[in-house]
Amino acid sequence: xESFENKAKLSQLTTKQNALNLQIENLSAQRSxxxxxxxxxxxxxxxxxxxxxxxxxxxxxxxxxxxxxxxIDRAKRLDEIHKIKDAWKVKLEAKQTEIETVSKQNIALQKxxxxxxxxxxxxxxxxxxxxxxxxxxxxxxxxxPILALGIFFFIRYRRHKFWPLYFGFTLFAFxxxxxxxxxxxxxxxxxxxxxxxIIVSGGLGYYAIKTxxxxxxxxxxxxxxxxxERSKKVQMEVAEKALENHYCPSCGKDxxxxxxxxxxxxxxxxxxxxxxxxxxxxxxxxxSNCKKCENKNFAHLPFCSSCGTKTSKD
Length: 314
Known about the structure:
Elements: H1 7-60, H2 69-156, H3 163-180, H4 191-224, H5 227-233, H6 236-244, E1 256-264, E2 268-275, E3 287-289, E4 296-298
Helix pairs in contact: 1-2, 2-3
Coiled coil: 10-44
Organism: Flectobacillus roseus
Transmembrane segments: 136-155, 162-185, 191-209
């Protein structure tokens, strides 16, 4: 921040301040000396008055003190001491006024110094904001194409045979955005950060709603196709997972109607399940009998689990 200060002007103001401070110190020292003088004068006056009172009391017993010239002389001396004390008090008030005047000048100079430093701080803050904006724009120039390419890959190639590579680049793009760009967003009271958050949240929300809506539409359209056509589209991995988790590979509904426990060999319990050959929600064939051994198999797996014969699906 010192590089934004007007060093010549601050040096001039500081020199004046130092001179005023030195003047205030000298005036304060003079005031202290006057205060000590006044204190000494007050002590002298008190001592002289006490002596005078005692002397007058003594003279009353001996003669007429009112006509005594010595009494008059001592009274005049006492008045002179009092006048000296008053004169020093006048000097003290004048010195105090002078100190206050110089102090006001010093305060005015300090205000000028503060104003100059405030102006330097404002220039410094403006330069810092400009620098931060420059850093942000440079990072934006680097990160924006990466982010745009990552979003493009995610939308266009998420079903590609090399989708893990595209998805990995998309994750890297989001990492570059949130860790390489967002921390350098200019604040401006937080409005830019809030705006970016709203835009990102709105974009992700719109994509999520659109994806879910498309999924529901695809499922509804899929249910309009005949069970034979849907059965042909079921992949082996999906069929294995559907059988393991007992749900229809087309609509995702549980194909177990009910289950109960039967006692076997005393305390041991065996669970019995009841299933259907066709899905009771979408009508897809789930289980079929082997043409060779009549063993019941999951209709979407390629071979019979009993004799190994290919199923009718293949």
